Amino acid sequence: MQDGSMSGNSRYEFQVEAHRERLIPLLKIILKAPDRLSSREHQQLMRRYPKPAGEGFYSLANLVDAWRAFAGQEGIPDFDEAQLFKLRRKPVRTLSGVTPLTVLTKPFPCPGTCIFCPNDIRMPKSYLADEPGAQRAEKNAFDPYLQSYMRLNTYHNLGHSTDKIEIIILGGTWSFYPETYQIWFVKRILDALRDFGQGIDRREEVTAALSEKSMFTGEPVSNVTIQGAQMMTSYNQTVQAIYAEEIYRSRGMADEIASGIRQRGIVDEYATWEELEAAQRENELAACRAVGLVIETRPDHISEAEVIRVRRLGCTKVQIGIQSLSDRVLAMNKRGHDVAATRRAFRLLRKAGFKIHAHWMPNLYGSTPADDLDDYERLFSDRDFKPDELKIYPCSLIESAELMRQYQAGDWQPYTHDELLELLVDCFKLTPEYCRLTRVIRDIPGTDIVDGNKVTNFRQLVERELEGRGEGSVDIRAREIGVKPVRAGDLRLDETRYESSAGAEIFLQYITAERDIAGFLRLSLPAANEGPLVEELRAAAMIREVHVYGLALGIGREQRGRAQHAGLGRRLIDRAAEIAAARGCRRLAVISSIGTREYYRARGFCDGALYQFRDLDESATRDTATGLELP
Question: pTM here?
Answer without folding.
Answer: 0.85
